From TrEMBL:
The keyword 4Fe-4S does not apply. This is Cadherin domain-containing protein. It comes from Kryptolebias marmoratus (Mangrove killifish). GO terms for cellular component: catenin complex. Residues 29-123, 124-213 form the Cadherin domain. Gene3D superfamilies: Cadherins. Residues 1-23 form the signal peptide.
Length: 222
């Protein structure tokens, strides 16, 4: 009597399948992984075929090789918005070709969409403004800029810096972690009454992405 094709529970990691990720090379039809079931019989009794238990619009399964490919370009952030999770779970059925009745087994497959750094930080405002007295002490906080990044882990960790060319010889400093801007040099209203700074927000990805806040305006009050 033919023995059932026995498959194990399989967890597949989709390394990168993001619609805007040219560097990943993951396109529609990209290989996601491969399921495998072993049947210790001989001849047709040992030939295993694979099918989905229910249709999966996002994936195709090669009935002979068990190779799993994507039918769409998958974006982790879109999946999180739509589904609340970037993971697909489904059941793969393996069956042999034995007669008169093929034997079968099944396994649960989980495909995780792993984040890549495909989104730059975005500032919450286009322009930040603040006023400060020319008699203000050093390390007085003027304002705080804020940017967010929808990627996860280091890819979504944002750091800030002032574009040096706009910083008037180091009049201001910024906390790289919080985005708080401080006065670090004495002000003179008669010499200069308006300052315009550009602030960059950069994420912590291996290939960092960044954005620039068009203007921060700390105005000097007499």
């Amino acid at each position: 009597m033919a023995r059932a094709a026995r498959s194990q529970r399989i967890f597949l990691l989709l390394l990168c399948a993001l619609a805007r990720c040219a560097a990943s090379g993951q396109r529609r039809g990209s290989l996601v992984g491969q399921v495998f079931a072993e049947d210790k019989d001989f001849g047709p009794n040992s030939e295993v075929r694979y099918t989905f238990e229910t249709p999966q619009p996002n994936f195709e399964l090669n009935a002979v090789t068990g190779e799993l490919t994507s039918t769409l370009k998958l974006d982790r952030e879109s999946l999180m918005r739509q589904r609340g999770a970037a993971v697909f779970s489904f059941v793969v059925v393996s069956s042999d070709q034995g007669l008169p009745k093929p034997l079968r087994d099944q396994a649960k497959v989980q495909v995780y969409i792993q984040d890549i750094n495909d989104n730059p930080p975005k500032f919450t405002k286009d322009i930040y403004q603040a006023s400060i007295s020319e008699s203000a002490q050093n390390m007085t906080q003027l304002l705080r800029v804020s940017a967010s990044d929808v990627d996860e882990n280091k890819n979504g960790l944002v750091h800030y810096r002032i574009v040096e060319a706009t910083n008037n010889h180091g009049t201001f400093s910024i906390s790289p972690n919080t985005g708080s801007i401080f006065l670090v040099k004495k002000l003179d209203f008669e010499t200069q009454s308006l300052y315009k700074l550009n602030v960059t927000a950069k994420d912590g990805g291996r290939l960092p992405r960044s954005s620039v806040a068009p203007e921060c305006k700390p105005s000097d009050l007499d």
